[in-house]
Write a sequence for this structure.
């Protein structure tokens, strides 16, 4: 008997190579992704708990230096919510969704990076907030079946 494997969740990093925060976010996500796909054999270790736990949080990392499309920005703003000036934390000087869309169209550099988005599960983290990134990855659906 065979099973269809679940497709991996897609995590997108809107990245800017000249931003130290963005570089840290990219490094963290790459490390998490690499560890998630590692597995140990019986002769490599006696305790497989950590490897097994990480393996269940595998995801596909998509890194882009392009700004989001208008539809993507709307979705990101929906994921982070409208409270406490959130639009302005994602798009420079924005006061709300409509303003954020206009400012992004006016100048794509108004989009503040890094922004990490979990499209499959409706979550986003802006800026380099390691604990929030780890929490988002930790909340990815776990693959509990073993083959």
């Amino acid at each position: 008997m065979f099973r269809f494997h679940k497709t991996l969740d897609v995590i997108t990093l809107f990245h800017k190579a000249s931003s130290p925060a963005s570089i840290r976010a990219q490094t963290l996500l790459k490390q998490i992704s690499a560890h998630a796909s590692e597995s140990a054999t019986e002769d490599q270790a006696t305790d497989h708990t950590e490897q097994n736990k990480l393996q269940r949080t595998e995801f596909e990392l998509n890194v882009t230096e392009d700004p989001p499309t208008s539809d993507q920005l709307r979705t990101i703003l929906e994921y982070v919510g409208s409270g406490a000036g959130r639009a302005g934390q994602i798009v420079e000087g924005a006061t709300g969704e409509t303003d954020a869309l206009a400012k992004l169209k006016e100048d794509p550099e108004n989009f503040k990076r890094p922004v990490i988005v979990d499209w499959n599960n409706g979550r986003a983290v802006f800026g380099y907030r390691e604990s929030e990134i780890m929490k988002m990855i930790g909340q990815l659906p776990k693959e509990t079946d073993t083959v």
